[in-house]
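Intended use. Records such as the DUF47 family protein entry shown here are meant for training and evaluating sequence-to-structure methods. They are not intended to support clinical decisions.
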Amino acid sequence: MRFRLTPRETSFYDMFAASADNIVTGSKLLMELLGADSSARAEIAERMRAAEHAGDDATHAIFHQLNSSFITPFDREDIYNLASCLDDIMDFMEEAVDLVVLYQVEELPKGVEQQIEVLARAAELTAEAMPNLRTMDNLTEYWIEVNRLENQADQIHRKLLAQLFNGKYDAIEVLKLKQIVDVLEEAADAFEHVANTVETIAVKES
């Protein structure tokens, strides 16, 4: 890591960690959605909406700190990108839950639970990685594993699409379910974007 003569604003680390912890909360709500009947899903959606609002607040706090700080722990552009990518994850997870409720989906297709399990694991890894931004230690395994998980998510997504188009579902149901599984895939992509941003930061700081 580069030696610095100037002090650095350290509150960013805590804010990134808080944002990632909130994503773990969101992933747990996704898991909860899997086992919930239709009557319980609206309440889960409300809690997910609150978590998404908390994520927005965390992102705005990072942007405010960025605009008011003369010295930052790493490049301003990377801070902005990392905060934005973390925010995207919560947005996609909240959207998926909201769509399940709005579309009144009775039963999610087999394989969605695998999508959500991948997201939950990626959320845990991301939350574990954020505190390590302070030292840039033990991050390589994090971004390698998240990239592996994203590849796994791609495979699951393709199998789900094949399942949706096998003639079992009517056309309207296909449109509803495809939008849900597509949004979950976007969440997996967003986790990879976070990991790639962390890798970029680590390379610059090495």
